[in-house]
Amino acid sequence: MDNRPAKNPRATVWKSLLLVVGIAMLFAPAGARAETLTADCGTAIATPPHYTTVTAALAAFVDSTVRNTLIINGTCHNESVPGLIDGIRIDGFSRLTVRAGGSGATLSHDSGLPCAPTAPFSNFSTIPVLTIVDSHQLIVEGFGTNAGGPGVNGGRLFITGGNGISIEDSSVTFRGVTIDNSRGSAIGVGNGSSVSLQGNRSNPPVNTENFLQNNCGPGVGTSPGSSANLSGWNTIQNNQGGGAGGNGRVSINAGLDSGGNQTTILIQNNQGPAGGANTGGFLSLGGNVIVQNNALNPDVTMYPAGMRAALVAYSQGIVFVNGQVQILNNQGPAIWADLQSVVRLGPPVIVPPPPPNLTVSGNTGGGLKLTHMSVAQSSSIAVMTGNTGSDASCDTSSLIYGDVTGISVMKCSNTEQTKK
User: Fold this and answer.
1) Pick from 282, 274, 141, 132: which is nearest to 192 by CA?
2) 10 Å Cβ neighbour count for 420?
3) Is 32 left (phi over 0), alpha (psi -120 to 50) or beta?
4) Are 96 and 212 part of one and the same domain?
5) Which stretches of 66-96 are assigned E, i.e. beta strand?
6) Which domain holds residue 390?
7) Which residues of 281-318 are buried (b: 16+ CB within 10 A; e: fewer)?
8) pLDDT digit of tens for each residue in the chain (420 aa)?
9) Distant-in-sequence, close-in-space partners of 77: CB < 8 Å, separation ≥ 6
10) Which helix (H) or strand (E) holds 394?
11) 249 with 372, same domain?
12) Cα separations (Å) of 166 from 169, 195, 224, 281?
């Protein structure tokens, strides 16, 4: 007689299942592991994990869904994808980091014509230098030095020429990147996409400030259903088309960096408006954001109504300007809201301690201009003085309300005026 205990059928099933899982893991494809590959542009021959082009390196990743890293060295010029109107194309990646090597890197393309003096979008190149499609949690970064500044490599990533960067159905973070001489926007943010520009100076000598400069279009252009967030150290300057805005949501906030230091976002010397919210778009500014010397060219308005101003809200656009922002010495009004648009100057409720003042001064077309059923709400931190003509003006269909005590010269017939 066999006195051994009977076998448990469930235990047998579990042992078999664990054995199958163990065998599957043993023979799992190597693509499940993250890879680091390098594009050594300008070299004739390379041995994996090194490749001679960015396109070849991207194609070599086994698994595009893991946290891969692509290091770029040298100058990658006029790369293109056969059969597509693209330069370098990142398609279907998740959590990929694209990083300039220690001596910096440049991605460039020759397509397109020089900027037209009065029509910033007329010479769009059909070929972006970099196209990012259906890719999420991407990081595109370089590491410059404080001594180097925007024009010296020092580990920075330069993207120049062509039609800048085109982003569709993707989420991307940029750090330590200079984008210049695009024939269109520096960064075009398509429907369903989100972009973050994060600049940091708190770890000397590393400087990951972003520079968007000398482009035919704006620094950042958004489409409906897209968003852009600028934080930390960023500079948008000398663009034919202007600063940042469009039909999507744009947030520009210069608070404290990771080291607890005050950051600055500069939007300056652009031919068009520094920022705008067009046809239902949204734009907010807060912290140490300096908007100065913009809207220099009266023919570069970027909005259908020909609106020349530092900040523009058009056709139910919304612009919020919060404490510490400075809007100084721009051509035209500091802020112009038209066609049922909304402006908010400071928070609707001031909670002690009050935030720093927002300052609007020295603008040639006045401070705030409201037309065609537009509305503005002001608060006590809005200090508007020394603007040409008036510090706030409204047509008969528009309204300003709230605390207007900081507005020196106001020409508005419709106002809930707390000013005595």
Assistant:
1) 132
2) 4
3) alpha
4) yes
5) 69-77, 88-91
6) 283-420
7) bbbbbbbbbbbbbbbbbeebbbbeeebbbbbbbbbbbb
8) 455 555 555 555 455 544 544 444 444 454 469 999 999 999 999 999 999 999 999 999 999 999 999 999 999 999 987 767 789 999 999 999 999 998 899 999 987 777 776 555 545 557 899 999 999 999 999 976 544 444 444 689 999 999 999 999 999 999 999 999 999 899 999 989 999 999 988 766 678 999 999 999 999 999 999 999 999 999 999 999 899 999 999 999 999 887 788 999 999 999 999 999 999 999 999 999 999 999 998 877 656 557 899 999 999 999 999 999 999 999 999 999 999 999 999 998 888 898 999 999 999 999 999 999 999 999 999 999 999 999 999 999 999 999 999 999 999 988 876 444
9) 41, 106, 108, 109, 110
10) strand 392-394
11) no
12) 10, 11, 15, 19
Contact indicator for 219, 250 with CB cutoff of 8 Å: no
Domain count, the chain: 2
Whether residue 210 sits in one domain with residue 190: yes
Burial letters for 211-248: b for 16+ Cβ neighbours within 10 Å, e otherwise?
A: bbbbbbbbbbbbbeebbbbbbbbbbbbbbbbbbbbbbb
- Decide if 221 is inside a domain: yes
- 59 secondary structure, DSSP code: H
List C-alpha distances in Å: 84 to 60, 98, 131, 166: 19, 21, 11, 14
Quick check: is 27 in a domain?
A: no
306 in the same domain as 230: no
End-to-end C-alpha distance for the chain, whole angstroms: 108
Domain end (from 271, 295, 326): 271
| Token pair for 150 | 């925007």
Residue 363 counted as domain residue: yes
- Single residue among 271, 299, 330 that ends a domain in this structure: 271
Q: Quick count: other Cβ atoms within 10 Å of Cβ 47?
A: 6
Residue 184's nearest CA partner among 138, 252, 131 is 131
Q: What contacts 169, CB < 8 A, 6 or more positions away?
A: 133, 134, 190, 191, 192, 193
309: its two tokens = 């101003």
For residues 360, 363, 367 and 369, what is the CA-based torsion angle, rounded to 10 degrees?
Answer: -150
- Judge if 288 and 185 occupy the same domain: no
Does 113 share its domain with 244?
A: yes
Which 3 state secondary structure label does DSSP give 335? strand
Tell me if 264 sits within 8 A of 292, measured CB to CB: no
As a whole number of angstroms, the distance between CA 415 and CA 393 comes to 11
